[in-house]
Amino acid sequence: MALIVQKYGGTSVGSVERVRAVAKHIATFKENGHDLIITVSAPSGVTDKLVAATEKFSNVSAREKDVMLSIGEQISIARLVMALNELGIPAVSMTGWQMGICTDAEHTKARILAVKTERAKKELAEGKVIVLAGFQGVTVDGDITTLGRGGSDTTAVAIAAAIGADLCEIYTDVDGVYTADPRMVRGASKLNVITYNEMLELASLGAKVLHPRSVEIAKNYNVKLSVRSSFDTSKEGTLVVNQLEKEFVVTGVACDQKVAKFGIFDIEDKPGLATVVFQALADAKINVDMIIQSAMRNNLNDISFTVPLEDMERTIKVLEELRENIGFSDIVFSPDVAKISLVGAGMTSAPGVAAKMFSVLAENNINIEMICTSEIRISCIIEKWNGIPAKAMQALHDAFNLDKLDQVTE
Ligand code: ASP
Ligand code: MG
């Protein structure tokens, strides 16, 4: 008998039939004597509609936006408990605040600070399946928060970590984590296992399977995590683990088309100036990636970096405000770019991966605007339009033979 957390995404609970199918699947686990905490997303499309509903008003505060956005998950918990009850399975719905998913007050992208488990333990002891609303939390002041789009994954992993679950299964509309988005790349293949670090890079780089923060928590608390299909539950899915005996040089190629690039020019070369720029961006809660400062000339530096596309306008504002104090000559930016990345835990010890990536892009006449590397990834900024990101992904996937990974299971 195990304690299992399962999360079902929006399409998995998108209709009454789907909710009933999920309830039946849960019943099989209950019959085998497992304790279950189920986290659900809003039915597919509902959160988008709620976002649209807030856009009918001007000057909407983030606090009120969260009151609206958190509604969707509540539909799902009620429906799933009703479907479980139809099958004679005792179950109880819980909102984020009833459970005690405590977050900071960064509305619309709150971070979980603590998760209470007393109520959950009591309900489990009474033999009930707990059905917990994903994506939502509560501040110390009792205000409703949401965790950012896709945040139900994070709710699931956080409750699994807090209660010490034996396994956290993320059920979704794909049957696992792929070497590339199968809708964009021919021959994309499913991975049986992947490391937390690779998954973290892929999730942050625009592979939509898991909310990046959920992988971070899974890694920090060593939560056994699996991603699998709710439509074909006979399939094994992908297991996310700490380490693999055989690491691939390249495990996946990801493309983030929702980025903007920035350059600030002619910053005086003296200590402390980079801090001022990036502290100001951090204070504005803007997530910066690909920071590049190259060799300086005439005592002047240029710094470039990328930010999420949704934060472009705010970044411009922050930089304009700094410009006077710091005195850089120019700010350039562009939303017309994509970040294409290769990820692989074995990259650290394999020379030549970057050279090969650049030559594949060159052969395809794709210009590289920025380059940045970490231990387990290489990212390039390229042009976004004219099908270039898809062409780049396919070419890299083919060149690194990702359709033929010689996989072993854990
Ligand atoms: N319902 C939220 C969204 O659509 C959270 C989630 O599905 O994970 O982003
Ligand atoms: Mg999701």
Describe this structure in words.
This protein has 410 residues and is an alpha/beta fold. It has two domains: 3-173, 3-Layer(aba) Sandwich (Carbamate kinase), CATH 3.40.1160; 253-404, VC0802-like (2-Layer Sandwich), CATH 3.30.2130.10. It contains 13 helices and 18 strands. The chain has helices spanning 16-31, 46-54, 62-69, 71-86, 96-99, 118-125, 152-163, 196-204, 212-221, 273-283, 312-326, 353-363, 388-399; strands at residues 3-8, 35-40, 91-94, 101-103, 112-115, 129-133, 136-138, 144-146, 167-172, 193-195, 225-229, 238-241, 252-268, 289-293, 300-308, 330-343, 370-374, 377-383. The chain has an eight-stranded mixed sheet with strand order 3-6-2-1-9-11-12-10, with helices on both faces. Strands 14-15-13-16-18-17 form a six-stranded antiparallel sheet. A hairpin with an 8-residue loop joins strand 4 (101-103) and strand 5 (112-115). Helix 1 packs across helix 4 (71-86). The radius of gyration is 23 Å and the shape is globular. The protein starts with a strand and ends in an 11-residue tail after the last helix. The mean pLDDT is 95. Aspartic acid (ASP) is lined by residues 10, 41-42, 47, 72, 134-135, 149-152.
